[in-house]
């Protein structure tokens, strides 16, 4: 009897772990859209820091990110326990914010002067080159700014994850939210550390004395790193923006049943095309979610712009 009870207990534990693993995987897929933007933003945040201080700054921001999630995870769990009905509105709000942020990036060249951007970059470069600059204060400001940015992105990740496990048992929610928080923090800041040091690694490889074929190969790899690092940053920004529209648009679509059913119908209709039907179904669903994200972002930006101008008009 005791042996049977132990086996039943182990089976229950295995079942719970399996649920946690599958839900964590599903939540990771849903939050992956924020990852590209998170990477690009955090890598950009440490720009201007001395090369020998890049990793300590990344580590400081990573610790700040963990503190953010120590606040956000219990808050999300409390909301799911006390007011579960808030999950969908919060999820929709997070989706709108993602779409707004993505569209703001697209509209930025039109809304802001290139001259102002160039002046800001020149001021940053001059400040870093200034021997009288208080580097401790400069780094502290960089870290604070990056941690503030991380708080917003972490909140998006936690809310999306909470929506993915809304119907799960409380213990499963705790495990999945904690797992996603840890995985995303390690993944994002581990990759940020690699990205910001790529050019240094490339320079190190290029400077190695040429002693044979192996060293020449290292020189080639070093040159690839040196030339590829800026393009990698640009690619991350583009991929991150597209992913924000895809994830944000997907959240909005799922929150509006009539739109969700329409996209499902169009995608399933494409499945009837011979040979490429399956691929078309996935592609159409993806593109329509991105389109929904772009439209949502455009309305959100327009609404905020109008509201800001009205506010400034009455407070002039």
Supply the key terms.
316 residues, mainly alpha, 9 helices, globular
Structure description:
The chain has 316 residues and is mainly α. The protein has one domain. It contains nine helices and no strands. It has helices at residues 2-45, 54-82, 87-111, 114-129, 135-164, 170-206, 213-255, 257-270, 277-314. The chain is globular, with a radius of gyration of 23 Å.
In a few lines, what is going on in this structure?
This protein is mainly alpha-helical and 316 residues long. It is built from nine helices and no strands. 87% of the residues lie in helices and 0% in strands.
Strand content: under 5%
Q: Would you report the number of β strands?
A: 0
Characterize the main sheet. none
Spatial gap, N to C terminus: 80 Å
With helices defined by DSSP (H or I, 4 residues minimum), what is the helix count? 9
Q: What are the SSEs and their pairings?
A:
Elements (H helix, E strand, L loop, with lengths): L1 H44 L8 H29 L4 H25 L2 H16 L5 H30 L5 H37 L6 H43 L1 H14 L6 H38 L2
Helix pairs in contact: 1-5, 1-6, 1-7, 2-5, 2-6, 3-5, 3-7, 3-9, 5-6, 6-7, 7-9, 8-9
């Amino acid at each position: 009897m005791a042996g049977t009870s132990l086996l039943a207990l182990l089976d229950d534990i295995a079942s719970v772990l399996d649920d946690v693993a599958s839900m964590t995987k599903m939540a990771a897929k849903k939050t992956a859209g924020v990852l590209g933007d998170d990477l690009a933003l955090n890598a950009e945040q440490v720009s201007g820091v001395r090369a020998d201080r890049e990793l300590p700054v990344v580590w400081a921001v990573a610790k700040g990110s963990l503190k953010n999630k120590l606040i956000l995870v219990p808050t999300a769990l409390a909301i799911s326990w006390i007011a579960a009905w808030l999950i969908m509105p919060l999820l929709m709000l997070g989706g709108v914010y993602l779409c707004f942020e993505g569209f703001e990036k697209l509209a930025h060249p039109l809304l802001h002067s290139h001259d102002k951007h160039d002046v800001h970059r020149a001021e940053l470069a001059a400040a870093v080159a200034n021997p009288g600059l208080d580097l401790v204060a400069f780094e502290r400001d960089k870290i604070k700014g990056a941690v503030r940015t991380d708080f917003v992105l972490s909140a998006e990740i936690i809310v999306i994850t909470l929506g993915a496990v809304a119907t799960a048992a409380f213990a499963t929610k705790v495990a999945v939210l904690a797992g996603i928080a840890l995985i995303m923090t390690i993944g994002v800041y581990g990759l940020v550390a690699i990205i910001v040091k790529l050019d240094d690694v490339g320079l190190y490889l290029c400077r190695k004395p040429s002693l044979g074929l192996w060293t020449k190969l290292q020189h080639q790899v070093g040159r690839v790193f040196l030339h590829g690092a800026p393009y990698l940053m640009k690619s991350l920004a583009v991929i991150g923006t597209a992913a924000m529209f895809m994830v944000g648009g997907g959240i909005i679509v799922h929150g509006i049943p009539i739109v969700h059913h329409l996209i499902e119908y169009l995608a399933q209709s494409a499945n009837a095309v011979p040979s490429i039907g399956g691929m078309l179904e996935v592609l159409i669903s993806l593109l329509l979610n991105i389109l929904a994200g772009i439209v949502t972002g455009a309305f959100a930006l327009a609404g905020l712009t109008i509201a800001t101008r009205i506010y400034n008009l009455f407070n002039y």
